[in-house]
Design brief:
There is one protein chain. The C terminus is likely disordered. The two termini are 39 Å apart. The chain is α/β, with parallel strands linked by helices and 609 residues long. It contains 23 helices and 16 strands. Pathway: Carbohydrate metabolism; Entner-Doudoroff pathway. Its EC number is 4.2.1.12. It catalyses: 6-phospho-D-gluconate = 2-dehydro-3-deoxy-6-phospho-D-gluconate + H2O.
C-alpha cells in the first residue's frame, strides 16, 4: 500500500475509534438469528403478506427464507431514474428463483438538479439528501426484511440512500444502477452553445435544441458530474455488482446485471454462512477508497460533503484534510467532461471502472482487502462483465487503455494531483476543483465584486459591468442561509468573461454543479456568511488572492480594519417561502457546516444541538 494512503487511513481509524465502536455495537444488537418478521404478531404479519401471491405467502409464512426490501427513487421526470419503473417486478422474479421473497419497502424523493438549477426549488436540493435518508428509514422500519436493494443514481439520492442503509447497518445492502443514456451531442458543444446564449448571440430556441440533443433519452446524463461520481463510488466501495455501472439502460446486459445483483443480496443475509451487513462491510478503508476513486477520476466536489455525511452514519469521521492529503498523492488518470471532452460512455468503452480499479490496486492506492457484496477483496471489481452462453460472466479488465486520451496510467497520468485542493486563509476554509483549470488559472489576484445572489451577478454581466479582472464574492448561499444551492448559473457568464481574456474567479459559501470546474471556484466556504463567516465583511474593491499552489485564499485588508467592519446582513426572507421552502426551516436551523457534511444528523443519528 501507498504509505500516504495508509497514514490517512490510520488517522481516520484513530479519530473514529469511539464512534465506530458504538456504531458496530448497535448494529450487532439489531441482528436477528431468525427472520425479522418472526417477531411480529399474527395480525401484523397478515398486513405484511396481504397483497402477496399465494406462493409468496407460503414462503413468508414458513419463516425460513429471506424477505428483501426495495427502496426505490423511481420517478419518470428524472431520466436517470425512469428505467427503474420495471425493476421491482424483475427483482421479485429473480429472488423468487432462489427461494426468497421481495417487497417494495418504500419510495424516496428524487429531484433533478438539472431541472431546478437557478430555480427556488434548488434550495431544497441539498436538504433532500437527509430527507431521502429519513424516508429510507421509514421504508425499512417495519422490521420485516433480511436485506435491502437500493434503486438510485443521481446527486443527493445515492448519498441519502447510503446514509439510510447505514442506519439499518445490520442488513446487507446492494445498490443497482440504471445506467447512462447513450451519447448525444458532445458536452463541449453543449457548453459552447450555452456561452453563446449567455452572450446574447443566439436565441432560446437554438439553446433548447442543443440541450435536447444532449439530454435525449432515459438514463443518466453522460457528463461526469455528481450522479456519475456516485456510480463510480458505489463500484469502488463494493456496493454494485462489478462491471455494470456504466452499461446503458434497456439492454440485455443491463437486465442481466439487475437480476444478478438482486440474487446476490440473498446470499448475504444472516440466514446463510456469508452474512455481510452493510454497516460492517463499509469501514474506514472503504471510504478512503471512495476518496481515492474520486480524485483519480476528477469527480464532483459535492462529495467533499456527501462522503463526510455518509461516513458519519457509520460512525466514521472524515474531514477536508483527508481529502486534501489523498488528492495530493493520487494521480488523475481519467479525462471526462468537464475535465476533458469524453463522456461516461467513452470512458466505459476505454476500459471504464474495471481498468481504473485495476490501475489503482496495482499502484497500492486502493485498499484491496476490503469486504464487498462479492465477498472479500476489491480485485473482483477490476473486471468487465458480459453475457456468455446466457450467463453473466466476468473477465479481467484490460491492462492497457483502449483510448489513452480518456484513460491514462498511474505511471503517466494526466496530472500527478487528484484535482481537489483545500484552501485556507483569513476568510475561512474552502475547497476548489483544479482538474479542469489551466496553469495560469491557479493564481488569481484581483479586486472583489460582492454579490448576494447569482441573479445579481448575471444582471451585472448582462449590463456589461464585468468586462474586467475580478473575483466574484457570492455570499449568503450556505446551508443555513438558503440550503446551499448549486450556483450553476454563474458558469456561463464567468466562462464567457474568461474566454475574453479576463482573470476571473468565484468565492462562495454555496456549491457549484458537479459538472463545473472551468472557472476557478473556491466553494463551500466555512464558516458560511450567515454563521459568523468573514465572507460577510468583504467589500467591493478589496484585493483577494486565490493561490492554489500555496493552498491559500486571502483578502488583503489590514486585520484591524477587517475586524472593525460590520457584517453585511441582506434580507433573506425571499429564500424562506415558496416552492416548499417554508417546510424546511427546521433543517436550515439545525444543519451543520459544509466541512461537517452539511447534515442535520450527527454520527449517532441524533439531531445536532
Amino acid at each position: 500500500m501507498n504509505k500516504g494512503i495508509l497514514e490517512v487511513t490510520e488517522r481516520i481509524i484513530e479519530r473514529s475509534k469511539q464512534t465506530r465502536e458504538i456504531y458496530l455495537q448497535r448494529i450487532a444488537e439489531a441482528k436477528s438469528s431468525r427472520v425479522h418478521r418472526a417477531s411480529l404478531g399474527c395480525s401484523n404479519l397478515a398486513h405484511v403478506m396481504a397483497a402477496e401471491s399465494s406462493e409468496d405467502k407460503a414462503t413468508m409464512s414458513a419463516m425460513r427464507a429471506p424477505n428483501i426490501g426495495i427502496i426505490t427513487a423511481y420517478n419518470d421526470m428524472l431520466s436517470a431514474h425512469q428505467p427503474f419503473a420495471d425493476f421491482p417486478p424483475k427483482i421479485k422474479a429473480a429472488l423468487r428463483e432462489v427461494g426468497a421473497t421481495c417487497q417494495v419497502a418504500g419510495g424516496v424523493p428524487a429531484m433533478c438538479d438539472g431541472v431546478t438549477q437557478s430555480q427556488p426549488g434548488m434550495e431544497l436540493s441539498l436538504f433532500s439528501r437527509d430527507v431521502i435518508a429519513m424516508a429510507t428509514a421509514v421504508g425499512l422500519s417495519h422490521n420485516v426484511y433480511e436485506g435491502a436493494i437500493y434503486l438510485g443514481v443521481c446527486d443527493k439520492i445515492v448519498p441519502g440512500l447510503v446514509i439510510g442503509a447505514l442506519t439499518f447497518g445490520h442488513l446487507p445492502a446492494v445498490f443497482i444502477p440504471a445506467g447512462p443514456m447513450r451519447s448525444g451531442i458532445s458536452n463541449a458543444q453543449k457548453g459552447k452553445v450555452r456561452q453563446e446564449f449567455a452572450l446574447g448571440n443566439i436565441g432560446k430556441d437554438v439553446l433548447l435544441q442543443s440541450e435536447s440533443a444532449c439530454y435525449h433519452s432515459s438514463g443518466t446524463c453522460t457528463f461526469y458530474g455528481t450522479a456519475n461520481s456516485n456510480q463510480m463510488m458505489m463500484d469502488v466501495m463494493g456496493l454494485h455488482l462489478p462491471g455494470g455501472t456504466f452499461v446503458n439502460p434497456d439492454t440485455p446486459l443491463r437486465e442481466a446485471i439487475t437480476i444478478g445483483a438482486a440474487q446476490q443480496v440473498s446470499t448475504l443475509t444472516q440466514l446463510g454462512d456469508n452474512y455481510m451487513p452493510v454497516g460492517r462491510m463499509l469501514d474506514e478503508r472503504s471510504f478512503v477508497n471512495a476518496i481515492v476513486g474520486l480524485m483519480a477520476t476528477g469527480g464532483s466536489t459535492n462529495h467533499t460533503m456527501h462522503l463526510i455525511a455518509m461516513a458519519k452514519a457509520a460512525g466514521i469521521q472524515l474531514n477536508w484534510q483527508d481529502f486534501d492529503d489523498i488528492s495530493a498523492i493520487t494521480p488523475l488518470i481519467a479525462r471526462l467532461y468537464p475535465n476533458g471532452s469524453a463522456d461516461v460512455n467513452q470512458f466505459h468503452d476505454a476500459g471504464g471502472m474495471g481498468y481504473v480499479i485495476g490501475q489503482l490496486l496495482d499502484a497500492g492506492l486502493l485498499h484491496e482487502d476490503v469486504n464487498t457484496i462479492m465477498g472479500k477483496g476489491l480485485r473482483a471489481y477490476a473486471t468487465e462483465t458480459s453475457i456468455e452462453d446466457g450467463k453473466l460472466t466476468w473477465n479481467p479488465a484490460p491492462i492497457e487503455s483502449r483510448d489513452p486520451t480518456v484513460l491514462s496510467t498511474v505511471d503517466e497520468p494526466f496530472d500527478h494531483h487528484g484535482g481537489l485542493t483545500m484552501l485556507d486563509g483569513n476568510l475561512g476554509r474552502s475547497v476548489i476543483k483544479t482538474s479542469a483549470l489551466k496553469p495560469e488559472q491557479l493564481l488569481i489576484e484581483a479586486p472583489a465584486i460582492v454579490f448576494e445572489s447569482q441573479d445579481e451577478l448575471q444582471a451585472a454581466f448582462k449590463a456589461h459591468e464585468l468586462d474586467k479582472d475580478f473575483i466574484a464574492i457570492v455570499r449568503y448561499q450556505g446551508p443555513k442561509a438558503n440550503g446551499m444551492p448549486e450556483l450553476h448559473g454563474l458558469m456561463a457568464p464567468l466562462g464567457a468573461l474568461q474566454d475574453k481574456g479576463f482573470k476571473v474567479a468565484v468565492v462562495t459559501d454555496g456549491r457549484m454543479s458537479g459538472a463545473s470546474g472551468k472557472v476557478p471556484s473556491a466553494i463551500h466556504m466555512t464558516p458560511e456568511a450567515l454563521d459568523g463567516g468573514l465572507l460577510s465583511k468583504v467589500q467591493n474593491g478589496d484585493l483577494v488572492v486565490l493561490d492554489v499552489e500555496a493552498k491559500t485564499l486571502e483578502v488583503k485588508v489590514p486585520a484591524e480594519e477587517f475586524a472593525a467592519r460590520a457584517e453585511a446582513r441582506p434580507d433573506l426572507s425571499h429564500d424562506r417561502f415558496g416552492s416548499g421552502r417554508e417546510l424546511f426551516s427546521s433543517m436550515r436551523h439545525y444543519v451543520g457546516s459544509a466541512e461537517m457534511g452539511a447534515s442535520i444528523f450527527d454520527s449517532t443519528g441524533e439531531e445536532q444541538a
